[in-house]
UniProtKB/TrEMBL annotation:
Record InterPro entries: Pectin_lyas_fold, Pectin_lyase_fold/virulence, Polysaccharide_Lyase_1
Protein name: Polysaccharide lyase family 1 protein
Glycoprotein listed as a keyword: yes
Keyword set, alphabetical order: Glycoprotein, Lyase, Metal-binding, Signal
Domain of life assignment: Eukaryota
Signal peptide: 1-23
Residue ranges crossing the lipid bilayer per the database entry: none
GO molecular function: lyase activity; metal ion binding
PANTHER family reported for this sequence: PECTATE LYASE C-RELATED
Amino acid sequence: MTYLPRLLASFLALGCPLVSALAFPGAVGFGSVATGGSTPFTVTSLADSGTGTLRDAVSASGRNITFAVSGYIVLQSPLSLSSSTTINGQTAPSPGIGVMGREVSASGKSNIIIRNLRMRQGNMDSDTGKSAVNFGKATNVILDHCSVEYGIFDGIDAVGAVNVTVSNSIIALPIGQQFGAHLETGPATWYRNLWVSAHNRQPLTKANTQFINNVVYNYQAAYTVANTGGLFSHDIIGNYFIAGPRTTSASDDYFQINANQKVFASGNFLDSNKDGVLNGAAANSVGSAVVLSSPWNSGSTGLATLTAAQAFTSVLANAGASPRDQVDAFVVSTVQSLGTSGDIITNQASTGLSNNGYGNL
Ligand SMILES: *[C@@H]1O[C@H](CO)[C@@H](O)[C@H](O)[C@H]1NC(C)=O
Ligand SMILES: *[C@@H]1O[C@H](CO)[C@@H](O)[C@H](O)[C@H]1NC(C)=O
């Protein structure tokens, strides 16, 4: 019986995680190796701390966390996750679960799954060095169907992070440095995300990267590598870049990508004219990068199942935590204007939404 090991070996050679190792059904990319926790823990209180709170839940490793309550948890200090944690926000009763006011951190931790959680730092946090999500030096982490808004340092800060997936998520309206996400080390997978109204870093990715079927709206700079000396490969497939009112130069859809980078770019579109209609043109010319004629990662083609136009429809309908709340509905509505609305903000209150801009949940 030599065929089984050979089959396994060929799976591994292809870079496909074995099905049994998937974080959850439908998990994709480098972070899908995460297995999270398995000890059941139910959150029964929206308080910041104490028995039955989310802070209590994440205080020990190995937990598989579900929710019997819904609404916002107002954090009084950063929420620091233990390794091997799964947060199943999708188990919360409608209208779902979110945290506001401080950072959610898995810094230095490993094996983390976060699903269907709204993470909105905002200016309740006076620490301008913190982000909505901190994956610094974290390993094997996956964020799926999450909503990351009002980050101050970054929306997602993931310097030194290994094996990361951010999928089906909204990363929008950062208010401090006005940066979407910063990842270094990798590898990393960004899949079917909606990036809205940031100055830059959508994402900044100094890593071997898959960037597939994302939508980026109202950027000043979108996909960025920051002219690093690092040698990285990037599969950039089927994404839609759309200029908005605050886009100063639509050609900064790809930004600071020098000849140290190798890029496979295919099926990407840019709609630069801010005319309220989705009518972009092909945009596969990426800075001075070395052009790859096929993806650097053998899994990328299999992930790129949507055209850029299909990604626009699918991502607008599905990205972020569900059910969709006021903040996410606001974000999506600005994208639907296709060039005529959207601002890059310094204070969440300037969205005009209730609850000082955090919306009601
Ligand atoms: C964790 O909880 C979720 C939601 O109840 C469940 O679907 C999943 O199977 C659990 N995973 C593990 C490893 O226990
Ligand atoms: C990253 O994932 C790969 C499998 O894709 C695994 O072989 C490797 O050990 C992981 N890295 C770390 C630091 O866990």
